[in-house]
Amino acid sequence: MLPDNWAIPLSALFLLGLALRIPTLSLLAIMVSLLIWVSTFWKKRVLKGVEYSRKLKFSKGFPGEEIDFILKVRNQKALPLFWLEVADLWPKAITPKNKSGFMESHIAGVGRLVNIFRLPPYGQAEFTYTVKLKKRGLYPLGPTRIKSGDPFGMYTDTKELASKDYITVFPELEEIPKIDFPSASPYGERKVRKRLFEDPSRPMGVRDYQSTDDFRRVHWPATAKTGKMQSKVFQPTAERVMAICLNTATSERHWEGVYPDLLEHLVRTAAAVVYQAHRAGFQIGMVSNGTMKNSDQPYRILPGRSKQQLSFLLTALAGVTPLVGMPFHRYLLKELPKLPYGTVMTVLTAVVDPLLLETLIEAKRHGRKIKIISVSEEEPPMIPGISTLHIPFQEKKSEGEIN
Predict the structure, then answer these.
(1) What is the pTM of this model?
(2) How far apart are CA 138 and CA 145, in angstroms?
(3) Where are the alpha helices (DSSP H) in 20-162?
(4) pLDDT for 252-301, tens place per residue?
(5) What is the largest CA-CA distance in the chain?
(6) Which domain holds residue 27?
């Protein structure tokens, strides 16, 4: 069946050839009709059965490392593809080493990885690339646009594949001195028979209320049932738990803007602290007033026992953006009640202002073990009962400034 815009003039041409007894006109109308019919048939079916996939050897790494990947296209039908264009949106920060086929796009910081080739019936094609990781971040690969058409070049069809893959570039680990983390135990790190702490997230029963119990421990349903005050009993724990409290603001008034180099130094230092705490045997979580990519809310990662916890934390640091969700002292006040008793708080910040110090002193009064790691130029003030570590940020000068 011919398209409407061609059917009428070709029918008229065919009838005109019959009426004037000019076979060439009628034959021309038949030939053009056949050509258009084949092109239309091809266009409707050319992209059916075309499968596209990316195969990444690794999806995560550190700056300076290389990742190999394969782009694979299959034609799962009897109809050949005389030409096929595959265009993948690709971040410029992880441009393939072989830049042939890499083109600009309308999106800032993103290019297009384009391949044009042909495929026989039930054939496939593979393209191998290598990317060198340069800068921390969470980089989406895709979506992909495939385009093909009939062998005569009359029609084309385009299809967008929404599937995405991601490459995560972890932050580099800043070179920092070995950190003496505070002990969660009032007696230091020593083996004792009695476990000192309880995990409020793991209740195991009730008992009679004691005058020393916190009012929040009262189990009201059990109290109503027995007629006597009952307290919750939680499972004991002797595990070392740490919360990395990261302040991503680079100035006291975070809405005034961001100092990019200082933010990167903060993230690299946080990655080094996470690694040292992991090696020291801590269960590590993280709270931050910073925001992740494609989000406008501060984030929290609970301490975990999983073998992938270190990867989760480094992935979160890889996605930190310059957007600050809320003032750090307010965010800490909001998150403190959610941290289990006995959690070591390691506060990493470039800004040590009076409001933050007041918040930390209040947390210390409630039995929190706190360590401040400051990367500001000025050394943080000494606070009784709170250990501090000063790792000042030193801006790298360019060669022009040195000369």
Answers:
(1) 0.79
(2) 21
(3) 23-45
(4) 887 778 899 999 999 999 999 999 999 988 989 999 999 988 788 888 89
(5) 115
(6) 4-45
